Amino acid sequence: MPLFLHPKRRPNLCPRPHLPQKTASCRKSGIIFGNCNKSPRGRAMPPRIAHVITTFYPTNTSAWVSALADDQKARGWEVELIVGRNASPELLEQKRRQGFFISRINSLRKYVHPAQDAATLWNLFRRFRNHDYDLVHTHLAKAGVLGRLAARAAGVPNIVHSVYGATFAPTQPWCRRLLFKNLEKLAGRCTDRFIFVGQDLCHAYRQAGICSNGKAEVIYYGKDISPFLKVGVLSPEDRRLRKQAAGFAPEALILGNVSRLVPWKGLHHALQVVRALKDKFPQLRLIVVGDAKTPSEGAYKATLLDLVQSLGLTKKVIFTGWQPDPAPYYAIFDLYLLTSQPFEGVPGSVIEAVVAGLPLVGFDCFGLREIPGISARLARPGDLSGLIALVEEELSCLIGGRPLRPMAEADIARLKERFSLSRMVQQTFELYRTLLEGRKAPLTLEGTR
């Protein structure tokens, strides 16, 4: 059996260079880490956890990983963040000041690059082999595949992977879809537990044969909806005033989209929608709140800007760039336009739009039906003509004076419960505890909080 598929193989471990050493003799006796000579025999030691993430910017995924790491550190656990080349220096410095150990692997990049990927696999393997991790938790696709293969090869006893969106989808070219699905199957054999952010996503992975029911757990991510609840209770007059304050005419019809500028968000479809409807609705505008984060994403942004020029939409489309607080934009949107491809987990911007009381039109994708209180008109993924027809109908209804409807209190309560950050953190802790309590050596799981 290949080394990277060998179940639970545990090689000889070397001392950790930048932390107090946790030697093999300490492990065997259960002496607490960092005080091998003074601690009494048999004392339990805290778990050592590594989170591996491809990109580390101020995004939702990075915030969720940080929340998990913060909770684990508060319990007295040893937590290390292993990040790729594309990471925010400010965010890394913030985590260092909070006492986290940060490792950066420059060869770990978001998109496929065989030479860099091979280097990343080797670097991760050496790191996992030379450090005595009790659990490795990988996040995002590239770190997920390479991190799990390297962790299993190095003998890490517990490997968890969080899935925020499918790496394969019907809208992809068949060769790429087949490659990614087979890579996921290979990495799935090295995974002890999968965490899915939605039921649809979990079902897709089970159907594809990537994970079994016994390995899968759905844990919805945490989200603070309070800024969007304030938007949801605004009166029509308040919305018109905010629209005017932003420089738009009261009769302007504004389509909104909040997302990173990446191909699977489908923003090129949004531009085609505006091109098709701009003559019938002269006051139609599109506002895209978000930006590209990596150089590869910058290439897609350039493509979008070129498309705006070629379609004659320079006065119709606005790219705001990244905004730390997107809530005020929902107050001036008339309609939320979802153009994401079907392998989303649960689209966070859709939750924001629903809470803000906006009607939603878009392509059908994973996770939409898992959002309490959602009411949407959906076209088949990639069906641009169907999407244009739905947007046209919805805009006609808005012109006819149909009022926006605030979210029902019962739906707000259900949504808050399902997408609670504290619930996400606690459920992840319970999953970790199930895995870590299977070890022979004693571990301190509760710690002090």
TrEMBL record:
<keyword id="KW-0808">Transferase</keyword>
<dbReference type="Pfam" id="PF13579">
    <property type="entry name" value="Glyco_trans_4_4"/>
</dbReference>
<dbReference type="InterPro" id="IPR028098">
    <property type="entry name" value="Glyco_trans_4-like_N"/>
</dbReference>
<feature type="domain" description="Glycosyl transferase family 1">
    <location>
        <begin position="242"/>
        <end position="371"/>
    </location>
</feature>
<feature type="domain" description="Glycosyltransferase subfamily 4-like N-terminal">
    <location>
        <begin position="65"/>
        <end position="222"/>
    </location>
</feature>
<protein>
    <submittedName>
        <fullName>Glycosyltransferase family 1 protein</fullName>
    </submittedName>
</protein>
<dbReference type="GO" id="GO:0016757">
    <property type="term" value="F:glycosyltransferase activity"/>
</dbReference>
<dbReference type="InterPro" id="IPR001296">
    <property type="entry name" value="Glyco_trans_1"/>
</dbReference>
<dbReference type="Pfam" id="PF00534">
    <property type="entry name" value="Glycos_transf_1"/>
</dbReference>
